[in-house]
Amino acid sequence: MTATTDAAWWAGQPEATPAKRFSGCTRRSLHVPTRDGTRIAVDVYLPAGLPQHERVPTILVPTPYFRSMQFRHPLFEKLVAKLSIVGGAEFAGEITQYG
Length: 99
Fold this sequence. Notes:
Elements lengths: L24 E9 L5 E9 L26 H10 L5 H7 L4
């Protein structure tokens, strides 16, 4: 029997990828203070329906770009979504389903 890990997809074994545990995600925007008092704006995406005290792995994507933007033309929004794969809402919605 092959062990199922969260690294299966990256290792080229998509058939060994664990089953999705959640459907969708929730998003909260927060300001996190640093030691020097600087407040950093962050978006926190969690699996929808996650029990209150359950811990899940974290993916940290540090970037000042494309955090919160509105575009005048839908084409630009689609381009940004495709170009900034990691860290966007589409990425968060997909990855949080696995917990």
